[in-house]
Amino acid sequence: MDIGGDKELPYMNFPKEENPFLGWRAIRIAMDRREILRDQLRAILRASAFGKLRIMFPMIISVEEVRALRKEIEIYKQELRDEGKAFDESIEIGVMVETPAAATIARHLAKEVDFFSIGTNDLTQYTLAVDRGNDMISHLYQPMSPSVLNLIKQVIDASHAEGKWTGMCGELAGDERATLLLLGMGLDEFSMSAISIPRIKKIIRNTNFEDAKVLAEQALAQPTTDELMTLVNKFIEEKTIC
């Protein structure tokens, strides 16, 4: 249940918070409201008997949280076994990497889960300490910042080192300039709005993977967003990709 912050539910009676983006949201709500967590996890497990499903936990900041949640899942799995109800015993469990805390311990988290999904909107605003909804500082919200992209690369590398896969959602996944870098960084799955799919699909098909790897390596070594984007734009012009 990824609620809280900018995702309010009127019937949940959220307490008023000074900074809801850093407050009671997502997995923190679920861990405090165990009855909600139980209902949701049991429902997902039951539905997994009828099709391919995965469980993903949002707003994770520690290994302790993941281990506690996995214990909860095992409890509900056993409940369903005792009730004689079918579910996918091998259902994949992953985390949404959307905090710098999760990104910096990705090598440890990768040992605990089956996959990562990088949430670039929150990861960007938390890494850069920029409220993307604040017009006074919105110009500082730069998903293509070297600091954000290097964290993303760290997460991808950590997952691959453990034989796991990494996907991405958020604005960056549908950005054609970012696509080239993300390909070169080894991103396994892109999640985006349907309208972006044809354009991004064309870029992926027309890009040489080895060229993208070289571009990503060079781009991540740049000290500023402007210098990084100059490299990317030059690559696009030379390869006439977009």
TrEMBL record:
Gene3D superfamilies: Phosphoenolpyruvate-binding domains
Residues in PEP-utilising enzyme C-terminal domain copies: 1-208
Keywords from the UniProt entry: Metal-binding, Transferase
Lineage: Bacteria, Pseudomonadati, Pseudomonadota, Gammaproteobacteria, Enterobacterales
A GO molecular-function descriptor: metal ion binding
Full protein name: PEP-protein phosphotransferase system enzyme I
Coiled-coil regions listed in the entry: none
Bilayer-crossing regions: none
Keyword Transferase: yes
Domain of life of the native organism: Bacteria
Broadest EC class assigned to this enzyme: transferase
The protein's Enzyme Commission number: 2.7.3.9
